[in-house]
Amino acid sequence: MAKMYHKEKSIQIKSSASALYNNLSVLRIAPRCLTYFTVVHANVVNMVSASWDGLNYSHRQLQSKEGNVATSSSLIMQAAWCVLPSRDLLVLTSQKGIQMYESDGSIMVYWHALETPETPTAQAVFARGIAAVREKYICVGVSSGSVLVFDVPSKGSNITLSEVLEEHTEAITDMASECSGSMECIADLVSADDSGLLCVWKSGGDFQLLNKIPGFDTSCSSLKLWKGTVIAGYGTGQIRLYEGVTGILHAEVNAHARWIYSLDIAPFTGLLLSAAEDSLVRVWHLTITPETNSVEIEHLYNECVTDTQICGAKFCDGDGYAFAVTGYDLSEIIRYTQA
Amino acid sequence: MSLRTLPLLVINMGGEMLYILDQRLRAQNETDDKALRGFWSEEDRKRVLNDIVRTMFSKAFLEELMKPQDLYSHKALRCVLTRLAHTSIMRLNPASMDRLYDLMTMALKHQILLCPRPRDFLLISFNHIDAIREMVTDSPSLVNQINDAQRQIIEMYTPLSDGELQLMRQTLLALFQDFHIRVSIFLKEKIQNPDGRFVLSTSGPVPHGSEVPGLIRWFNSRGREVRRREFPSGGCYTSAVREGSFDISGDRVTRLGKNKYSATSAEDTRTSDTSKNTSKAKQESVGPNPLAKEELNLLAKLMGGMEVWSLAQADTGIRVNLFPTDEDDGGISVGTDEPSFGVINIQATKDHQANTELTRIAAEFTEQQDQPEGPSNKGDDLLAMMDDL
């Protein structure tokens, strides 16, 4: 069987990737023939900009922030680009709050501090789960289960917290917005938490809860939403495909032998990427026909990253022609391209 | 991240430390060197272990650890573990403690990394606690102390969700990030690669609660399975084995956290640091440490109740090598830019002259107390030095 993907030259990063869910974010900037990558290490985000000809790499490090202090030791939980029609923003979530930067990481445009109790309780406080929704929203999850909805203007720093959604009671793990580009999908956003509960939302001035899909007390650590189908990765190593609005389970995949850390979808082709602590990255093909309500999933390819617990895996383009992988303790971004 | 991690960290690290100390003190009695043999008697060894266990499982100590708080830095953790070791009559100099700490760190990193599911880290902790209980089985009061502590641990951790336990695991992985110290016994058993990274298997039983990868099932709108198909999983997995016991006693099933040093020699505990020390140093320099005050409070509490060896004692230090090895040991060859693999001896002194940093700190916190002499008649003028570093 011919290999579907082959390994390319890795990109070295300044420090190793931390063991965090969804610890890789990719932004493709076609007009400048560049791809940006971010990988979280403790209280720092390593950002690399790679030219498509493979000749130029430039690095930048962003630090977590705390109140008026410019740099902080507070740990970053996640970093992700939010692509909105008018602008791209890089969002960092940490134990102290939420930072938003211009897409190249050069300027911080917004800071939101999390409420912390005066005396420490046993419950950890942090923000985790980032999604850009429709034209103007960035949604971020919190350890209390709240989902913060930020209203983002087309330029400038006048970002405001417009709503707080309170359906989850466990810590938010990940969030995903509809990525097919289709305006016909009713569901815009899905959020997941440590109990495996999935909440499906419609965006607007007031976000509307469309459905609550209960979990089985298994943490859902990574989520995607494509053509109205929720693709959820769990701590048991399973992937489930749900119809977002109705909550009907279409398929269940015994995908990995360990906790899933990352899922990604290539929206133009329906390729799905899953990666877990079991050292494996798998590529699947999804076919969804909303009219007939059918969901097809087919396994295509496995890649084993030896002796590595993978913590991030993302496609580098909308077709799924290339993907990149990060692993705990690894100081490189490993890349694969279709053969 | 998680604010509940410290108790398990200290118990597990402490457990590893006890394994190593126990094994090395036993080995003293088997050494060919007449000058060393019999210096640490069976009674001495037991006393050392009992003293350490008594502190580690004391109510006050555990209470302090169980307060919701961030993990200590490596520096503070090392201080606490050194102080624990020094609640006994044994003295470890800083270099020895460093090496011991490296061993403990890598052992625990291995266990956390290989933990099949986050909840299994509790079973690993229980393996440590079970072994410690065995070590002090002659002392019913200590056994009771341990049982009480274990009940508290069970009460605190078993209700946590898998997600919260994973957060704890991620917090610990952050602490051990970038540590790639090679340990002979791990290299020998092929659980560690020459570059210091641990071997992760893609075969074996899946964790409890998971399914063997390789199956896709489709369901209709009523939840009934309508179709299934297999795919090649690329590994060699089998179904989960039975779950380990989360009770005070019972079969934990996992071997992680059990004593791997019982059959080892000094050779096996050699360590070699592959990491450029800067990466570890960087961890310490991350921002001002807001925990410094808390850590020192804990130490003060410990030391307040502990005997402090007087600094004024005459120099009657007896140095004993915990890890004697042959002089011309070749070591394992490594890449040219790696530091050469030297033999590391851990020196334990049965010493009334406290010369560690901690005792200096102790002096700042507590008043010096006069101490009754330990069993110092055991060959005060016996000197056994094997320094081939």
From TrEMBL, chain A:
Q: Which GO terms describe its cellular component?
A: centriole; ciliary basal body
Keyword Repeat applies: yes
Name the Pfam families for this protein. Answer: WDR54 (PF21031)
Q: Which domain of life is it from?
A: Eukaryota
- Keywords, alphabetical: Repeat, WD repeat
Q: Where are the WD repeats?
A: 253-294
Q: Which SMART domains match?
A: WD40
Q: Any idea where the WD repeat-containing protein 54 beta-propeller domain is?
A: 4-337
What InterPro entries does the database record attribute to this sequence?
WD40/YVTN_repeat-like_dom_sf, WD40_repeat_dom_sf, WD40_rpt, WDR54_beta_prop, WDR55/POC1
Keyword Repeat set for record = yes
Biological process GO annotation list?
Answer: cilium assembly
Could you identify this protein by its name?
Answer: WD repeat domain 54
Automatic annotation (TrEMBL), chain B:
Q: What is the top-level taxon of the source organism?
A: Eukaryota
The uppermost taxa in this organism's lineage are: Eukaryota, Metazoa, Chordata, Craniata, Vertebrata
Which Pfam families does this entry report, sorted A to Z? Oscp1
Q: What is this protein called?
A: Organic solute carrier partner 1a
Where does the record place the region Disordered?
A: 259-289, 365-389
Cellular component terms per the entry's GO annotation: cytoplasm; plasma membrane
Q: Which InterPro entries match?
A: OSCP1
